[in-house]
Design brief:
heterodimer, A: about 110 residues, mainly beta, six-stranded mixed β-sheet, four-stranded antiparallel β-sheet, about 0% helix, about 50% strand, globular, B: mainly beta, five-stranded antiparallel β-sheet
Chain lengths: ~110, ~110
């Protein structure tokens, strides 16, 4: 596939459980971003990876959130001890230059 | 602190007429602006952008206007088509940064 893919597309979990969300960026894209969109809100920046540089984690809302990226490929966003306010659509995007290409998102519901 | 605001959560327009979506920003350091379109269950897709050195950028049926003094941009779609029905997000950034600040979106419905 030529686009950004994310899995799972939907995730329902119980409060307190850990979840892992996956993003496969477009091949060759050096930059990868995670955003979150809560109901009625805009897209909220979470974290940015660029090549081998240290990631910009300034948007992560708490230390329950972490993300990793292997080289210039797959990234995983992990949320530990999920809370109901973590319910949102989590979007991944990748880019080579300025334009960002978004994946379809993972809808996370925390009961 | 909402640096990018889309004050109209929804808009309905008749097919063939003009759709005008508005966006306001507060940070005068922003110098690059974009519009994204999002269909349900899909990620946002890039539509059109404008740099602050211009006040208008046109691409087919889509035109973005930038009024720097008012810190306001708008997206015009003419003529509107039913397939344009989607949520439109405006975003802003500063040259040299990679963080786009997004508005909350406007849901456009084009009525056939």
């Amino acid at each position: 596939g030529a686009g950004v893919s994310q899995s799972p597309s939907n995730k329902v979990t119980e409060k307190g459980k850990d979840v892992e969300l996956r993003c496969d960026p477009i091949s060759g894209h050096t930059a990868l971003y995670w955003y979150r969109q809560r109901l009625g809100q805009g897209l909220e920046f979470l974290i940015y990876f660029q090549g081998n540089s240290a990631p910009d984690k300034s948007g992560l809302p708490s230390d329950r959130f972490s993300a990793e990226r292997t080289g210039e490929s797959v990234s995983t966003l992990t949320i530990q001890r999920t809370q109901q306010e973590d319910s949102a659509v989590y979007l991944c995007a990748s880019s080579l230059f300025r334009e960002k290409f978004f994946g379809p998102g993972t809808r996370l519901t925390v009961l | 602190d909402q640096q990018v605001k889309q004050n109209s959560p929804s808009l309905s327009v008749q097919e063939g007429r003009i759709s005008i979506l508005n966006c306001d920003y507060t940070n005068s350091m922003f110098d690059y602006f974009l519009w994204y379109k999002k269909y349900p269950a899909e990620g946002p897709t890039f539509l059109i952008s404008i740099s602050s050195i211009k006040d208008k950028n046109e691409d087919g049926r889509f035109t973005v206007f930038l009024n720097k003094s008012a810190k306001h941009l708008s997206l015009h779609i003419v003529p509107s088509q039913p397939g344009d029905s989607a949520v439109y997000f405006c975003a802003a950034s500063q040259t040299g940064t990679y963080k786009y600040i997004f508005g909350t979106g406007t849901r456009l419905k084009v009525l056939a």
